Amino acid sequence: MKRQVLLILVLFICFITGCWDLRRIEDLGYVMAMAIDRSSNEQIRLIVQLPNPRALGGGQRGGITPGASIDVKPYRNYEGIGPTMFDALRNISHESSRRLFFAQNHTLIFGEGMARESVGKVLDFLNRNVEIRPGLTMVFIAKGDPAKILDIPNPHSVVPALRINDIMLWRGQTSRFAPVSLSRFLETLSLEGQEPYAGVIEATPNPTARVKEGEKTAPQPSLSLRLTGAALFRGDRMVGFLNETETRGLLWVLNEVKGGQIVFSCPGPKDNKVTIEILRSNAKIEPEITEGGIIMTVKIREEGNLVEVEGPLDISKPEVIRELDRLHAEAISQEVMAAVYKAQELGSDAFGFGEAFRRKYPQKWKKIKKDWPEIFPSIKVHVQVDARIRRMGMISKPPLLGP
Amino acid sequence: MREEGKISALQAMVYQVSIVSATAILFTPAITAKHAKQDAWLSIIIACFFGSLQVYTAISLAKRFPNKSVVQYAPQILGTLPGKMVGFIYVFYFFFVGYFIQQEFAALMCSSYMPYTPSVVFMLILALLAAYAAYGGLEVICRVCSIVQTLVFATLALIFLLIIKDIKIWRFLPPLENGLRPILLGAIPPGGWFGETAVILMLYPFINNKEKAVKTSLLAVLILFITMEIVVIGAVGLGGPAETARSLFPTFNMARCIKLEALPILERQDALFMMVWVGGMMIKLTTFFFAGILGLAQWLNLKDYRPLILPSMAVMTALAVQAWENIAELFSFSGEVFPFTIILVNFIITGFLLTIAGIRNIILKNT
Q1: Looking at residues A49-53, what average pLDDT do you find?
Q2: What's the complex ipTM?
Q3: Considering the domain boundaries, does residue B3 fall inside one?
Q4: pLDDT number for residue A57
Q5: Cα dist from B78 to A345, B65, B299, B305, whole Å
Q6: Residue B348 within any structural domain of the chain
Q7: In chain A, which residues touch B (CB < 8 A)?
Q8: Under a CB-based contact definition with an 8 Å cutoff, are residues A111 and A36 in contact?
């Protein structure tokens, strides 16, 4: 008898899972991407992208009427406007049949207009909310309307949010865009000697979309979603963009270059190019105080493989490789300097030169930290690159060169 | 007093570790980093020495009365009335920390995933589990502690392994930026927590290999030291001192922020962390509660502590419900008041008892 009562009591446990906070998976709307912008009346405009699992689940899209030209979109974007973040997102609940759930969100996009004003006000909510994972959420700035960017069609990776994720996984292919996690963004914001940066996302025209009017095949999308470059901040305000070359210059210093290509001219009179694929790199900032002011020495060690030689260059000779090493190092140092000039012009120390200084000279830093925004544009930066070409693919001399 | 069974010195060590670990894991990084910033790991080292001193004081006292607990021999040292008063302080200390634990438990559960569930539900469930465990007696509790602690440490090790690639040494630089003072300030709360291992004062009579107790008690402090260093280095190395100090539950955040692009299935270990942490909290409450009712029964000269379990649990839960109005109060209390309270009991009063006992001994020898 006692045992039976106990069994019944144990079975009751099944009914009380989650207590008051029971959430059924089919009731949740998994936010895949969120974009925050200012609305026209100075309120917060929040756009969230929810997937439509039925349309995503494979089979024939559009289902009921075969051959129908209009597909059911596998996602739906909602927009909510309100004075605060929480208000805006709760406003969406008037339209959404599912409760918004942010834990799986990987993409956070700020509108450019809002970023240029300030993103500080909404960061508190993003850090405070338990569902949002700062370590897993990537921060981007949208050039143009984020709603438009989150609605660019594509035949594969149909959901734009997932496409952004997939593109981001391949960032080591060029290292020329700079996604940053929300936690890193917040950390740099709280540091005195370093300013935040964020990735940039834009809609670019698709030049391959050339299907003629009246043709049977579905047209190519006229726009592509592109991750490009970086946006620099001063405090919580965005001050400008870096182009793609400058972005890699920034990433060299931040130790975030995971791979990519370096193109530079061959030695010799003709304008031929050599291309190196970056394998790995490592950078260190060494601050120094001299009579002429503060000097930052950036030391970069890089290793790469030679992937392409245009000119008739006998690269089977070690001394030629040594010469290429030197040119290749110069190309890297130019990228870094391009980024440094742009950042000094914008007055945003995204490299963390101030932090490097603080780590080496904590006492002196206390005296100058107030003036750092004024000092930073005038500091001298030296770049020392030790670049090595290790391997050269399947052949030694290029085919143009005779035996 | 009924025979409570015998435990080995090693089991007592597990008990000592369990009594500290769960809350220390969750709260140390934030409270330490608030003062010591990037030198939080140095604070833990200092706190470890302080903790060893406390547990050594406690065990020196316990050794003088090998077959009694502190509640029983305090009247012998100080005389009946003051002795009883000191005994009551010890008993109340265990209940006091007990209901503090209930509140802390409810704080994380309600803040993170279950905001709509009334906090009293969590406190009650935890209390009932602890009461059930206390019915089992000391030997049972020690065995449960061993199982749960193994899981806790295994999980912590897994989480640390998963984040180790993201820990950056430069987040700990420069050391000693603001001198020694902030480090010492940061060492006080963990120092207090280390001192909770002085629960050996209650356990000593039940240990069957008493000669090993000194070694195992210090080993308990060492284990806790490694645990705290892991969470502090993990939290500060991952998010920097400012972010660590800002977050209320830094270790929980650490588990939330695991990022592995190659193996996304190992990301988001917060559910796993939550699971073992709830287990850890349960045994933490059990250890305090058990020490409390055992002490209360000895204080009242009862034969058995079991009739006291439910009434004292009810009182403790009621105290927990009314004690702190909101989480800001709870956290400022746990950083600024709580460490001093437990240092007072574990170190100052214990040291005082030891001194008096020593003086009495000398006087007895001379006469």
Answers
A1: 87
A2: 0.85
A3: no
A4: 61
A5: 75, 14, 15, 25
A6: yes
A7: 18-21, 103, 127, 130, 133-136, 169, 181, 183, 186-187, 190-191, 355, 358-360, 362
A8: yes
